[in-house]
Amino acid sequence: MTSKHTRRGVLRAGMATSGAALLSAMPAGRLLAQEPEKPSEIIVRAWGGEWVDALKAGVSDPFTEMTGIAVRHDLTEDNEIQPKVWAAVAQGRVPPIHINWDTTTNATKSALRGVTEDLSDLSNLANTTELAKPVGLDGYPLINTYGYVYVLAYRPEAFPDGPPTSWRDLLDPRFKGRIALYNDGIGFHFPAQVAGGGSLDDIPDNMEPCWNFVREIKEQNPLLGEDPDFTTWFQNDEIDAACTISTNALGAKRNGVELAWTVPEEGCKFDTDCLWIPKNLPENELYWAKQYINLALSQESQQVWLDGLGLPGVVPGLTPPAGLENDPSYPTKPEDFEHLIRISSAVQVQNESDWFARFKEIMQG
Fold it and tell me: Sign (positive/negative) of CA torsion 345, 349, 353, 358?
């Protein structure tokens, strides 16, 4: 991911010959002469580290090459930008960003609040799989762009007897201070429910098994952080294991760190991220923001972008990155999902804030 992806040459040759190449991927009915005025830039909220590097290589740079519109990446955390966007729309102001690269759960909250633009007119939607469609929402107030697994990433040298088979293996005293979780526990709640002796069927009404296991993990003094932290911690030999999106472990591995990842017997959470546009943008800026997302749904952009992230996309025919074919972190077939945990987005929207708060309360107590 830190390299300048070799498929960039393919992308440039196949798509950037002229403005007409981009237009072919845009909504029907628009001709070059009818394009609205181009803004000097569009602002895309993104995650830092390997995440923004991959987005830049696969989508943002090609978009600028084809349109001349600069792309500025706003690295404000998704949970921090959310209330700012909501307030802007409620007050009739122009929002602080043009596009939000967001978790599907967070984006669903915004969609239900009525602050997102409809994206159902994007021509490249016709070429996507069912994973692109938001579940439980009318139309396309957001578009899922890929899926991912919160794997158990680990250093093989710390597990000489083989991969950890259970999340409870992290309770071994030798891992005290050497494991890491997201600072709100995202990705960990559901396997913790099972590891704590509970059932997934009891979510969300009885999550006490989850919190009991979180209390056990707290005694291990885990490091708590965000996506870029995990890569850094592995590279600095500060941790031996982590519940994290596979992208972060892959980033450290590509930088020479010996790492592996697995799906323990309790399972791992599977989720999606998405792109969406807030309401109240000027008409010309809305048009070009839509074209950015449309480009992100092209096979060429998905191939480069998701090569960088090591994640399965929503366009058929993508080639898995080297070493990830049949990998548990790269599910593409129905059987690949047998040990992955998928909880309704509606349930997550209704409860995630409470789960985050409960996790933080335990960790800070």
Answer: negative
Q: If we measure between CA atoms, which residue out of 126, 78, 82, 134 comes closest to residue 101?
A: 78
What's the rounded Cα separation, in Å, for the pair 64 and 313? 22
Domain boundaries, the chain: 2-147+272-309, 149-270+331-363
Cα separation, 196 vs 181, in Å, equals 17
Cα 160 to the center of its chain, rounded Å: 31
- Distance of alpha carbon 156 from the chain centroid: 26
The answer to whether 2-147+272-309 and 149-270+331-363 have equal CATH topology is yes
Query: Is pTM beyond 0.90 here?
Result: no
At residue 20, the pLDDT reads: 39
DSSP string, 162-215: SS--SGGGGGSGGGTT-EEEETT-TTTHHHHHHHTT--GGGTTT--HHHHHHHH
* Residue 263 CB contacts under 8 Å (≥ 6 apart), including other chains: 149, 151, 152, 328, 339, 340
Domain 149-270+331-363 part of CATH 3.40.605.10: no
How do residues 96-119 score in pLDDT, each as one tens digit? 999 999 999 999 999 999 999 999
CATH T-level assignment (fold) for domain 2-147+272-309: D-Maltodextrin-Binding Protein; domain 2 (3.40.190)
Give how far the C-alpha of residue 184 lies from the chain's centroid of Cα atoms, to the nearest Å. Answer: 16
Q: Looking up tokens 């006490």, which residue turns up?
A: 208
H or E element that contains 61: helix 61-67
